[in-house]
Amino acid sequence: MKIINRQSWVGMVFLVTLECCSFLSAMVWPSWAAPAEDGVPEPPSGMQYIVGGVYAPLFKEAGVEQPTPVAPFYLDIYPVTNAQYAAFIKANPRWRRSQVSPLLADVAYLRHWQADTPSPEAATAVAQRPVTYVSWFAAHAYCRWQQKRLPSTAEWEYVALASATAPDGSKEAAYQTRLLEWYALPAAAMPPPIGSGQKNYWGISDLHGSMWEWVADFQTAFSPGASRGDAEAERDRFCSSGALGVSEPELVNYPALMRDAYRRSLRGTYTVHNLGFRCAKDLP
Amino acid sequence: MTRSTLSWRSRRVVPLLRLGLVLCIGLVIVATPTTAQTPKPGGTPVASAEVMGQETAVLTDAPLVPPPISRDHPTKVIVNVEVREVVQRLADGVDYTFWTFGGRVPGKFIRVKQGDVVELHLNNHPHSKMPHNIDLHAVTGPGGGATSTFTAPGHSSQFSFTALNPGLYVYHCATAPVGMHVANGMYGLILVEPREGLPPVDREYYVMQSEFYTRGRHGEEGLQSFDMEKAIDERPTYVVFNGSVNALVGDNALKANVGETVRLFIGNGGPNLVSSFHVIGEIFDRVYAEGGTAVRQENVQTTLIPAGGSAIVEFKVEVPGTYILVDHSILRTFNKGALAMLKVDGPENKLVYSGKEVDETYLGERAPEGQVAAQRIATLEKRVEETIKQTPAIVTMTKEIQIEKGKLVFMQTCAVCHQTNGQGLPQVFPPLAGSDFLMADKARSIRIVLRGTSGPITVNGTTYDSVMPPVVQLTDEQVAHVLTYVRNSWGNTGDAVSPDEVRLGREDHQ
Asked: pTM of the entire structure?
């Protein structure tokens, strides 16, 4: 786990050092705390305590421990909303649409706001909806501002594996079918307000059926060479069945496979209409 | 700070770009004489004469094909493809979320010439839910372009390739899960014309076969979602030409005139099935098997088209009429939608095709119509009437609604033989319009839909001796609707047929 994160950080540090030195000073290395032996630690407001466990990556690859341990952590119950993100921008004007560096977010950044702050009508419409059109850098900065961090792929997928009733919903055919059906629907104009769906086993909401979410290691989770230069690894992903950790097709977690494909199409500056985020936090 | 950083980048990048350009031009110049002197033995893939000029490719939606390329030298061709995820009609009353190259299924037809340098731009629409890419089988290089065009929603990718090998090639999306991206409609054709061009013909059309796997059964109305399990089991709900049931029939049929030579560029997007492509009433004069560039066979009845493959077929049309394009794995045609039409206009040629010359009775062995059956029908009708009276739900469903719903079923299921105007085909398929046979016996008409019929029947004084297969895929409601429709269309007037009548008809023989 640690190894994976370091790789992603190293990649990002490289970028950040080049383009934005002040950003580097804000970075903190993740550190894992052991779970409290007795009782569940009280989570910060708006977060849930996630019991540690094991995450089985989709792809078997050299250099990646499999299955991957996931240490206990806290995760936001809901994605970050437009209202919350507006508060962040108020406190950090350099993340305004008009001021953000093109090296940290592409031209569609906060496009749906149409201005530095959402118009009054727009504000009402989007306040309780997840913020989208945000880059990885922006998401990262927001979580930092909250003394939090982005969840890793392993953490996100570990939590997202749960159905409403079990930590591992991957064997519930009806649940998997419902997830897959969402991927087959055309994208909505904007994601539904937070809390529209059912909370899962961990008490986390909107992981599915709403939009995509940034993770800390969105491209390097399984591919040490990062994605774009590593043609062989990329090809394995596209024609993925050969590289899948499971051989029987009925056991393939297709929704996870599609999320994996989506993440690998991204770059840190990208902003997309159906891509938002939520934050995680280490135990004290 | 932003501005200064940018200009720092520009200063560094621009000279590098220039250097790159110089290097590229150098390579082309150097490469040209070398390759020209050493053509590959027996092979067509030769890097070409000098690439001159630049143009933007004209792309067309099926069934249209861009015009032949008249220039005699390779050029740089810019191809802009936009990926869109759209809800469109899959069959009457049935919608589906298609993932498309260009807004339609199949994707845009791309036409270039051997030796052209193709600069492909893949634009993923900002409202897309998924990332997508494109793997063109015309590309020589790892992934066929897939790795170079992997594109998030609201973003664009670009890559270039030289069209080394002429032929007709499939392109498709290769984003995981590949099967789902292909099953949702992400495929099309790219033709790389050989340097000398293709022989001229009078008509060129673009037809692509593919399957769809929906959660609901064939014909089930509403927005249908993709069914991964059916796809893995290779049990398609629909097999179609050009993206939907009846995309190429009626007013949308392909057209030609007597005496013309027709060239079809046929692709098979799959994702699973191999097509046994056949045109009823025609023989392919020439087949470029598997989309290659040499005529591999002449005088072919049915040609095999692999999934992810293609064929070019050519034939001269000699006789007017409607020719039916089918996958001769024939249940796909009659039960799943794999049917298209080519309408040929012009004067008759009785020497080539006479029409029916003899029509007389042939008495083979056939079961006598019995008293028992008549009695059973009488009992049945009585039961049906009682059931209807006791079921308010049926009474409240007005005949008009049934007629409307029945029309959809008819167009999808029956019109192929009985024709959209209910006139049938002379001597082959009896008419329903003004049919005394149809209107005389409601229970019989139900029975015929459910169980089919064969042997001679007399309709309006004319004897028809052919076979109607049982229409097994329809629900009781659909049978009731379609019969209500035909009993009240084209001058027919009759009472409605209820689902209960159909149910009783079904049970009666079981």
From this structure: 0.69
